[in-house]
Amino acid sequence: YPGDKDLPPQICLSHEGPVKYFAHEAVSAYKGIDLGAGIRFKPKRIDGVPYSYPILEDDNKCFCECDNCKKTFAKLPLAQLHGYLHFDWLNRIAQNAKKQQPDIWIASCAYSKSLDYPDPKILKLADNLAIKICLAIDSWQHPGLYKWQHGIYKKWVKNEAQRRPISIWGYMISPSFEAKIFYKYGD
Fold first, then answer.
1. What is the pLDDT along the chain (187 residues), one digit of tens a residue?
2. Taking the complete model, does pTM exceed 0.70, yes or no?
3. Packing angle between helix 16-31 and helix 78-100, nearest 10 degrees?
């Protein structure tokens, strides 16, 4: 690694092994079963709030490039592939967990390459999937970023807010940091 075809840079989102593992982990946590090192924390129950188990693949810009991942949504542009693979993977985990525990929810993020709302004609989200939309609202003084991110936010709210828990993860990095580091203003 890197370059090892047998060791992908990211978990394989099309393989059933991780789906079964994470569904089992979520249901075990729901039931209070300690799986040891597999579960880093145990989400607590809150009265009156559905139990949600958080799952997200590695936080990097890579994704599995196996043939099965590439062909899962082969007709989509490469720029959209990871987002659809991400939500398809979460759907399968949520559906598998629901078969074992009907009132469990899986919580995850719409983040980076999966930020955009998936077209329901291509992929409908599982009914027990809670979404946290990750927005860099500290950079919304930039008109282009505001238009792009606020538009995505509005799509999520319009299409999903009545169907599932939707929340926001707001990054609190300073605008001057982003202007200097990311956008190279002043260089």
1. 456 766 667 788 999 999 999 999 999 989 988 776 555 667 777 888 889 999 988 777 777 878 898 888 889 888 888 899 999 999 999 999 999 999 999 999 998 889 999 999 999 999 999 999 998 877 777 899 899 999 999 999 999 999 999 999 887 666 676 677 767 776 5
2. yes
3. 40
